[in-house]
Amino acid sequence: MRIVLNGEDRRLEAARLDRALEELGYTGAHIATAVNGEMVPREARAGTELEEGDRLEVLAPLPGG
Amino acid sequence: MPTFYDVQMSSRLIVGTAQYPSPAVLEAAVEAAGADMVTVSLRREGAATGGGQGFWEIIRGLGVRVLPNTAGCSTVKEAVTTAHMARELFDTPWIKLEVIGEEDTLHPDPFGLVEAARVLSDDGFEVFPYCTEDLVVADRLVDAGCRVLMPWGAPIGSGRGLNNVYGLRQLRAHFPDVALVVDAGIGLPSHAAQAMELGYDAVLMNTAIAKAGDPALMARAMRAAVGAGREAFEADPIEAGDMASPSSPVMGRAFLT
């Protein structure tokens, strides 16, 4: 399956969001997620299925003013 | 010391965490500022080893309160979604709400700001809106549930100081019971002192410290200025006059001509 991760095309085996995040290398990371512009809370990741072409945003704390 | 949403703070200086030459300099500056709250943002993370994870460890190590922002958002939806992601990531209902209406000046979009503030307040957020000194917009933000207002001194990163002292003074007089923070535009300690002399509860700055040649030294200078300005406000300063008024007694003056 092809998705768009943080603006870049990526290929994925897993469809479930929690497993997709592991596949993409985010295991254990302190992150927040959104699919197609809608936030997916941490506890809802296991119940969220990604679909072809979905836009996945993975955000983390970074410096800010 | 200021109270934000019933939380008593221990510092009137809030510091941003961006643009420092290194994490060590950031840590030194926050300590020198005596800040008990720092602002942070949310940005795309490459993978578990991305920059966000190390940054988060540094921030946690500072032992200060975190105020996440919605920097870069230009629509209500973006800002609201970012705020929700921040609430989960930082485990806080506090959000520095930015809805930007114009890219060159980073002028807040007052219409989007009020709408987003209402949506977020209704959803349990405690909103710190980055606004201008516009009285009516401020009124609407308070109506929307904001108990803190953060008017700019000048555009973000400009270091111009307080562009509209009259407007900021009006805002202070109009909202005696709302916590007011000058956010953005501070360049020098004298600007920070001036904000405090106006009776503002706190100042928030990033670039003035982070981009100084010696950030920790500038942080210390800002801390001193904030303290001096606040003490001056509490000391009830004299009114400025147009004419001289002799300070030495006139009575008993010798005639030596």
Properties at a glance:
heterodimer; A: 65 residues; mainly beta; 5-stranded mixed sheet; 1 helix; B: 257 residues; alpha/beta; 8-stranded parallel sheet; two-stranded antiparallel ribbon; 9 helices; 12 strands; 40% helix; 19% strand
Summarize the structure.
The complex is a heterodimer of chains A (65) and B (257). The longest helix of chain A has 7 residues, at 17-23. In chain A, 11% of the residues lie in helices and 37% in strands.
Q: Can you list the strand order of the major beta sheet of chain B?
A: 5-4-3-12-11-10-9-6
Shape field of chain B: globular
Written as H for each helix and E for each strand, in order along the chain, the element string of chain A is EEHEEE
Beta-strand level of the residues of chain B, as a percent range?
15-25%
N to C succession of SSEs of chain B: EEEHEHEHEEEHEHEHEHEHH
- Estimate the strand proportion of chain A: 35-45%
Biggest β-sheet of chain A, characterized?
Answer: 5 strands, mixed
Largest sheet, spatial ordering of strands of chain A: 2-1-5-3-4
Radius of gyration of chain B: 20 Å
The low-confidence parts of chain B are none
- Assembly of the depicted chains: heterodimer
User: How many β-strands of chain B, per DSSP?
Assistant: 12
Mean pLDDT of chain A: 96
Q: Name the poorly predicted regions of chain A.
A: none
Q: Could you estimate the helical fraction of the residues of chain B in percent?
A: 40-55%
Tell me the radius of gyration of chain A.
Answer: 11 Å
Which range best describes the helical content of chain A: under 10%, 10-25%, 25-40%, 40-55%, 55-70% or over 70%? 10-25%
Biggest interface, chains and residue tallies:
A-B, 27 and 40 residues
Large-scale geometry of chain A: globular
* Distance N to C terminus of chain B: 55 Å
**Quick one: how many beta strands of chain A?**
5
